[in-house]
Design a protein that fits this description.
binds zinc ion; OB fold (Dihydrolipoamide Acetyltransferase, E2P); 5-stranded mixed beta barrel; 2 domains; about 20% helix; 6 helices; alpha+beta; 4-stranded mixed beta sheet; single chain
Length: about 280
């Protein structure tokens, strides 16, 4: 067994019978917006609960719409909300926010203590996480995984949207006022490329993992470079999302989360540099 490999210190979050709970969460991942028939565009926020025992938390279906009541949330904001466990989602970290209770504190982005908190929650084995998620739908579905070896990055063409997503976008366009359409249309514009990594975790016989980076920054980066296309955009993506992770001496971790429709498949929701 590798010297670095340890059993993850994961403690299961409280059960699904918990009622409405006020909580504070350090946001560490924000997914790209997806179409919603009722709100136009939704994101998922992922982070660490700061009050009470430190657990990973997922808030699904947060409006991404800047004109809605909720200010856009960015990574390393602290949000407070009243939430309850999502009864429709077996993943233990999934909570549903009560309407209009989400509040955002932006100043936490300069908070030095957050690096130490993330360090303490970094785990060693993606292999174990995938195995348990494949066995049980209510297994741990969020984790910060230390990367033992980064193998390569792939910049792929974005696939066509799934039929359910196209239906949601079309339904929203039919029912909502013209005022919001350009904003939501911009939010939902699919970028030309996606970014995926292949890496090894610290499991002694890691089978290697290929996971897509589903971070709103990947979409925003390409939206700011609309005049780029093809090879120049691919090169820019590699410059932004690969080379900083490859600097000598850096220790990298990936915040990973499983997909709701395929619990054994994980995406990378954020890249974290644990040691510079
Ligand atoms: Zn592994």
């Amino acid at each position: 067994m590798s010297e670095l490999y340890r059993t993850p210190h994961y403690e299961p979050p409280p059960g699904k019978d918990t009622g409405a709970t006020p909580m504070q969460v350090l946001v560490t991942g924000v997914t790209p917006p997806v179409p919603s028939a009722t709100h136009g565009a939704m994101t998922t926020l992922v982070g660490l609960r700061l009050d009470g025992p430190r657990h990973w938390i997922r808030f699904d279906e947060i409006p991404a719409h800047p004109l809605s009541q909720t200010a856009p949330v960015r990574r390393y904001d602290i949000v407070s909300a009243i939430a309850e466990p999502d009864p429709a989602d077996p993943r233990p970290e999934s909570w549903r926010v009560h309407d209009a209770t989400l509040r955002v504190r932006h100043e936490a982005r300069r908070w030095p203590g957050r690096a130490a908190i993330l360090h303490r929650h970094a785990e060693w084995s993606m292999c174990d996480l995938e195995d348990s998620a494949a066995r049980r739908p209510d297994a741990q579905s969020l984790a910060l995984i230390r990367v033992a070896e980064l193998r390569y990055v792939r910049v792929n063409r974005t696939p066509v949207a799934a039929p359910a997503e196209r239906w949601s976008a079309a339904t929203w366009r039919r029912t909502e006022p013209d005022l919001f359409r350009p904003v939501v249309h911009d939010l939902l514009r699919r970028p030309p490329f996606t970014v995926a990594y292949r890496y090894h975790c610290h499991h002694p016989v890691c089978r290697s993992h290929v996971q897509e980076l589903r971070d709103r920054d990947v979409v925003a980066f390409q939206q700011r470079r609309r005049r780029y296309c093809g090879l120049p955009l691919r090169r820019a993506l590699v410059g932004e999302f690969w080379w900083p992770l490859r600097q000598p001496g850096r220790e990298v971790a990936f915040l990973v989360g499983s997909r709701r429709d395929a619990p054994a498949r994980f995406d990378i929701l954020d890249t974290v540099i644990l040691r510079r």
